[in-house]
Amino acid sequence: MPTARLYIVATPIGNLEDVTLRALRILKEVRFIAAEDTRRTKKLLNAYGIRTPLVSLYDQTERSRTPSLIRRLLDGQDVAYVADAGTPGISDPGYILVNGAIEAGISVVPIPGPTASIAALSVSGLPMHRFLFAGFLPNRSSARRRFLESLKEEAGTLLFYESPGRLQESVRDMAVVLGNRMAVVARELTKLHEEILRGTLDALLEQLSGREVKGEVVVLVGGHPGAGRDVSDESILLALEEARRGGLLSSRDLAAEVSRRLGVPKKKAYELIVRTADESDLS
Protein backbone atom coordinates (compact mmCIF):
# COMPACT_ATOMS: atom_id res chain seq x y z
CA MET A 1 0.00 0.00 0.00
CA PRO A 2 1.54 3.36 -1.03
CA THR A 3 2.38 5.61 1.89
CA ALA A 4 2.50 8.93 0.03
CA ARG A 5 -0.59 11.10 -0.13
CA LEU A 6 -2.20 13.31 -2.73
CA TYR A 7 -3.53 16.46 -1.08
CA ILE A 8 -6.31 18.35 -2.86
CA VAL A 9 -5.81 21.86 -1.51
CA ALA A 10 -8.35 24.68 -1.74
CA THR A 11 -6.77 28.10 -2.18
CA PRO A 12 -8.19 31.66 -1.94
CA ILE A 13 -10.60 32.84 -4.63
CA GLY A 14 -9.29 36.38 -4.26
CA ASN A 15 -8.18 37.62 -0.88
CA LEU A 16 -4.97 35.79 0.06
CA GLU A 17 -5.89 35.98 3.75
CA ASP A 18 -8.60 33.36 3.14
CA VAL A 19 -6.06 30.51 2.96
CA THR A 20 -6.23 28.10 5.90
CA LEU A 21 -3.37 27.37 8.29
CA ARG A 22 -3.57 23.70 7.37
CA ALA A 23 -3.31 24.50 3.65
CA LEU A 24 -0.16 26.55 4.27
CA ARG A 25 1.40 23.74 6.29
CA ILE A 26 0.65 21.12 3.63
CA LEU A 27 2.01 23.34 0.84
CA LYS A 28 5.24 23.71 2.81
CA GLU A 29 5.61 20.02 3.68
CA VAL A 30 4.86 18.21 0.41
CA ARG A 31 7.66 17.26 -1.97
CA PHE A 32 6.14 19.34 -4.77
CA ILE A 33 2.95 21.14 -5.81
CA ALA A 34 1.05 20.50 -9.03
CA ALA A 35 -0.76 23.67 -10.08
CA GLU A 36 -3.27 24.64 -12.74
CA ASP A 37 -1.45 27.95 -13.20
CA THR A 38 2.05 28.09 -11.72
CA ARG A 39 2.24 31.88 -12.14
CA ARG A 40 -0.87 32.44 -10.04
CA THR A 41 0.16 29.88 -7.45
CA LYS A 42 3.58 31.52 -7.10
CA LYS A 43 1.87 34.70 -5.89
CA LEU A 44 0.26 32.77 -3.04
CA LEU A 45 3.47 30.89 -2.19
CA ASN A 46 5.57 34.06 -2.26
CA ALA A 47 3.11 35.83 0.05
CA TYR A 48 3.74 33.18 2.71
CA GLY A 49 7.39 32.41 2.04
CA ILE A 50 6.80 28.92 0.67
CA ARG A 51 9.54 27.55 -1.61
CA THR A 52 8.08 24.15 -2.57
CA PRO A 53 8.81 23.24 -6.24
CA LEU A 54 5.96 23.66 -8.74
CA VAL A 55 4.87 21.66 -11.78
CA SER A 56 1.98 22.62 -14.05
CA LEU A 57 -1.15 20.52 -14.52
CA TYR A 58 -4.02 22.16 -16.40
CA ASP A 59 -6.95 21.00 -18.55
CA GLN A 60 -4.96 20.28 -21.69
CA THR A 61 -2.17 18.41 -19.85
CA GLU A 62 -3.98 16.67 -17.00
CA ARG A 63 -4.51 13.39 -18.85
CA SER A 64 -0.94 13.20 -20.18
CA ARG A 65 0.81 14.28 -16.99
CA THR A 66 -1.23 12.34 -14.45
CA PRO A 67 0.73 9.06 -14.95
CA SER A 68 4.05 10.73 -14.06
CA LEU A 69 2.50 12.26 -10.94
CA ILE A 70 1.10 8.88 -9.93
CA ARG A 71 4.57 7.34 -10.31
CA ARG A 72 6.04 9.99 -8.03
CA LEU A 73 3.34 9.30 -5.46
CA LEU A 74 4.04 5.56 -5.70
CA ASP A 75 7.71 6.36 -5.10
CA GLY A 76 6.73 7.89 -1.76
CA GLN A 77 6.58 11.59 -2.65
CA ASP A 78 3.66 13.54 -1.17
CA VAL A 79 1.99 15.81 -3.73
CA ALA A 80 -0.41 18.74 -3.35
CA TYR A 81 -2.69 19.83 -6.18
CA VAL A 82 -4.09 23.36 -6.42
CA ALA A 83 -6.32 25.01 -9.03
CA ASP A 84 -6.18 28.64 -10.14
CA ALA A 85 -8.37 29.54 -7.19
CA GLY A 86 -10.88 27.84 -4.94
CA THR A 87 -11.39 24.08 -4.67
CA PRO A 88 -9.83 21.86 -7.37
CA GLY A 89 -12.25 19.88 -9.50
CA ILE A 90 -15.13 22.36 -9.13
CA SER A 91 -15.26 23.52 -12.77
CA ASP A 92 -11.47 23.17 -12.66
CA PRO A 93 -9.01 20.33 -13.38
CA GLY A 94 -8.43 17.63 -10.78
CA TYR A 95 -10.92 14.88 -11.62
CA ILE A 96 -8.53 12.79 -13.73
CA LEU A 97 -5.69 13.12 -11.22
CA VAL A 98 -7.89 12.18 -8.26
CA ASN A 99 -9.29 9.13 -10.03
CA GLY A 100 -5.82 8.04 -11.14
CA ALA A 101 -4.64 8.20 -7.53
CA ILE A 102 -7.65 6.25 -6.27
CA GLU A 103 -7.12 3.52 -8.87
CA ALA A 104 -3.46 3.27 -7.80
CA GLY A 105 -4.47 2.82 -4.16
CA ILE A 106 -3.08 6.20 -3.12
CA SER A 107 -4.69 8.06 -0.24
CA VAL A 108 -6.38 11.27 -1.43
CA VAL A 109 -6.77 13.88 1.32
CA PRO A 110 -9.06 16.95 1.04
CA ILE A 111 -7.75 20.23 2.46
CA PRO A 112 -10.99 22.23 2.45
CA GLY A 113 -11.32 25.94 1.92
CA PRO A 114 -12.90 28.55 -0.36
CA THR A 115 -15.12 27.91 -3.34
CA ALA A 116 -16.87 30.75 -5.15
CA SER A 117 -20.22 29.01 -5.56
CA ILE A 118 -20.69 28.29 -1.84
CA ALA A 119 -19.39 31.72 -0.84
CA ALA A 120 -21.98 33.31 -3.13
CA LEU A 121 -24.77 31.05 -1.86
CA SER A 122 -24.00 31.90 1.76
CA VAL A 123 -24.76 35.61 1.20
CA SER A 124 -27.38 35.29 -1.54
CA GLY A 125 -30.51 35.35 0.61
CA LEU A 126 -31.86 32.46 -1.49
CA PRO A 127 -32.85 29.11 0.10
CA MET A 128 -29.77 27.07 1.07
CA HIS A 129 -31.28 23.82 2.35
CA ARG A 130 -31.10 22.39 -1.19
CA PHE A 131 -29.12 23.58 -4.19
CA LEU A 132 -27.73 22.37 -7.50
CA PHE A 133 -24.34 23.46 -8.80
CA ALA A 134 -24.53 23.41 -12.61
CA GLY A 135 -21.09 24.84 -13.47
CA PHE A 136 -20.56 26.88 -16.62
CA LEU A 137 -23.47 27.36 -19.01
CA PRO A 138 -23.09 26.47 -22.71
CA ASN A 139 -21.67 29.23 -24.91
CA ARG A 140 -24.43 29.33 -27.55
CA SER A 141 -27.89 30.63 -26.69
CA SER A 142 -29.73 27.67 -28.24
CA ALA A 143 -27.70 25.13 -26.26
CA ARG A 144 -27.91 27.30 -23.16
CA ARG A 145 -31.71 27.43 -23.33
CA ARG A 146 -31.94 23.65 -23.77
CA PHE A 147 -29.71 23.20 -20.73
CA LEU A 148 -31.80 25.62 -18.66
CA GLU A 149 -34.96 23.82 -19.77
CA SER A 150 -33.59 20.62 -18.23
CA LEU A 151 -33.29 22.44 -14.89
CA LYS A 152 -36.65 24.17 -14.98
CA GLU A 153 -38.37 21.85 -12.46
CA GLU A 154 -35.44 21.71 -10.01
CA ALA A 155 -36.63 22.61 -6.51
CA GLY A 156 -33.30 23.80 -5.15
CA THR A 157 -31.43 27.03 -5.76
CA LEU A 158 -29.46 26.88 -9.02
CA LEU A 159 -25.78 27.90 -9.05
CA PHE A 160 -23.89 28.77 -12.25
CA TYR A 161 -20.50 30.15 -13.22
CA GLU A 162 -20.47 32.59 -16.13
CA SER A 163 -17.99 34.73 -18.01
CA PRO A 164 -18.45 38.52 -17.89
CA GLY A 165 -18.92 38.78 -21.65
CA ARG A 166 -21.86 36.36 -21.72
CA LEU A 167 -23.48 37.40 -18.44
CA GLN A 168 -26.28 39.57 -19.84
CA GLU A 169 -27.16 37.05 -22.55
CA SER A 170 -27.31 34.25 -19.98
CA VAL A 171 -29.48 36.23 -17.54
CA ARG A 172 -31.83 37.04 -20.43
CA ASP A 173 -32.07 33.35 -21.37
CA MET A 174 -32.70 32.44 -17.72
CA ALA A 175 -35.61 34.87 -17.56
CA VAL A 176 -37.09 33.46 -20.78
CA VAL A 177 -36.75 29.78 -19.82
CA LEU A 178 -37.10 29.80 -16.03
CA GLY A 179 -39.42 32.77 -15.60
CA ASN A 180 -38.82 35.97 -13.67
CA ARG A 181 -37.46 34.33 -10.51
CA MET A 182 -35.43 35.88 -7.71
CA ALA A 183 -31.72 35.72 -8.50
CA VAL A 184 -28.30 36.97 -7.49
CA VAL A 185 -25.21 37.97 -9.46
CA ALA A 186 -22.03 37.81 -7.35
CA ARG A 187 -18.90 39.24 -8.93
CA GLU A 188 -15.24 39.35 -7.85
CA LEU A 189 -15.97 37.76 -4.47
CA THR A 190 -13.45 38.58 -1.69
CA LYS A 191 -11.63 41.00 -4.01
CA LEU A 192 -11.39 44.79 -3.99
CA HIS A 193 -14.31 45.29 -6.40
CA GLU A 194 -16.63 42.66 -4.90
CA GLU A 195 -20.23 43.25 -5.95
CA ILE A 196 -23.46 41.39 -5.14
CA LEU A 197 -26.61 42.26 -7.07
CA ARG A 198 -29.99 40.90 -5.93
CA GLY A 199 -33.44 41.02 -7.50
CA THR A 200 -35.61 39.31 -10.07
CA LEU A 201 -33.94 38.19 -13.29
CA ASP A 202 -35.62 41.06 -15.16
CA ALA A 203 -34.44 43.56 -12.55
CA LEU A 204 -30.89 42.19 -12.71
CA LEU A 205 -30.93 42.52 -16.47
CA GLU A 206 -31.83 46.20 -16.07
CA GLN A 207 -29.01 46.70 -13.54
CA LEU A 208 -26.51 45.08 -15.90
CA SER A 209 -27.69 46.89 -19.03
CA GLY A 210 -25.03 49.10 -20.57
CA ARG A 211 -22.37 48.00 -18.08
CA GLU A 212 -19.01 46.45 -18.84
CA VAL A 213 -18.80 43.63 -16.33
CA LYS A 214 -15.36 42.36 -15.35
CA GLY A 215 -14.05 39.54 -13.20
CA GLU A 216 -15.32 36.12 -12.21
CA VAL A 217 -19.09 35.77 -11.86
CA VAL A 218 -21.45 33.45 -9.99
CA VAL A 219 -25.16 33.52 -10.88
CA LEU A 220 -27.73 32.06 -8.48
CA VAL A 221 -31.40 31.54 -9.34
CA GLY A 222 -34.23 30.49 -7.04
CA GLY A 223 -35.62 26.98 -7.51
CA HIS A 224 -38.96 26.11 -9.06
CA PRO A 225 -41.53 28.30 -7.26
CA GLY A 226 -44.05 25.47 -6.87
CA ALA A 227 -41.62 22.96 -5.40
CA GLY A 228 -42.23 23.98 -1.79
CA ARG A 229 -45.85 22.83 -1.97
CA ASP A 230 -44.65 19.23 -1.59
CA VAL A 231 -42.80 19.90 1.69
CA SER A 232 -44.37 17.88 4.53
CA ASP A 233 -45.88 19.44 7.65
CA GLU A 234 -43.26 17.59 9.69
CA SER A 235 -40.43 19.32 7.78
CA ILE A 236 -42.09 22.70 8.28
CA LEU A 237 -42.49 22.08 12.02
CA LEU A 238 -38.80 21.14 12.33
CA ALA A 239 -37.84 24.34 10.50
CA LEU A 240 -40.12 26.32 12.81
CA GLU A 241 -38.40 24.90 15.88
CA GLU A 242 -34.99 25.80 14.43
CA ALA A 243 -36.20 29.34 13.71
CA ARG A 244 -37.52 29.70 17.25
CA ARG A 245 -34.18 28.58 18.66
CA GLY A 246 -32.62 31.24 16.49
CA GLY A 247 -34.55 33.90 18.38
CA LEU A 248 -37.61 34.52 16.17
CA LEU A 249 -40.85 34.83 18.13
CA SER A 250 -43.60 36.44 16.06
CA SER A 251 -45.70 34.15 13.87
CA ARG A 252 -45.19 36.34 10.82
CA ASP A 253 -41.41 36.38 11.22
CA LEU A 254 -41.38 32.62 11.75
CA ALA A 255 -43.50 32.06 8.64
CA ALA A 256 -41.23 34.30 6.56
CA GLU A 257 -38.11 32.48 7.76
CA VAL A 258 -39.56 29.02 7.04
CA SER A 259 -40.67 30.19 3.61
CA ARG A 260 -37.13 31.39 2.89
CA ARG A 261 -35.56 28.15 4.09
CA LEU A 262 -37.92 25.63 2.51
CA GLY A 263 -39.47 27.50 -0.39
CA VAL A 264 -42.99 26.95 0.95
CA PRO A 265 -45.62 29.70 0.68
CA LYS A 266 -45.63 32.00 3.72
CA LYS A 267 -49.38 31.43 4.04
CA LYS A 268 -48.89 27.67 4.42
CA ALA A 269 -46.27 28.12 7.14
CA TYR A 270 -48.37 30.73 8.95
CA GLU A 271 -51.49 28.54 8.90
CA LEU A 272 -49.51 25.64 10.37
CA ILE A 273 -48.17 27.89 13.15
CA VAL A 274 -51.71 29.01 14.03
CA ARG A 275 -53.07 25.48 13.90
CA THR A 276 -50.39 24.00 16.14
CA ALA A 277 -50.83 26.91 18.58
CA ASP A 278 -54.58 26.24 18.76
CA GLU A 279 -53.98 22.52 19.33
CA SER A 280 -51.53 23.38 22.12
CA ASP A 281 -54.11 25.63 23.79
CA LEU A 282 -56.74 22.87 23.65
CA SER A 283 -54.43 20.41 25.34
Explain this structure.
By secondary structure, the protein is of the alpha/beta class. The chain has 3 domains: 5-114, Tetrapyrrole methylase, N-terminal domain (Cobalt-precorrin-4 Transmethylase, domain 1, 3-Layer(aba) Sandwich), CATH 3.40.1010; 117-225, Tetrapyrrole methylase, C-terminal domain (Methyltransferase, Cobalt-precorrin-4 Transmethylase, Domain 2, 2-Layer Sandwich), CATH 3.30.950.10; 228-282. It contains 11 helices and 10 strands. A 5-stranded parallel beta sheet has the order 3-2-4-1-5, sandwiched between helices. α10 crosses α11. The longest helix is centred in the C-terminal third of the chain and has 17 residues, at 266-282. The chain is globular, with a radius of gyration of 23 Å.
Summarize the structure.
The chain has 283 residues and is an alpha/beta fold. Helices cover 42% and strands 18% of the residues.
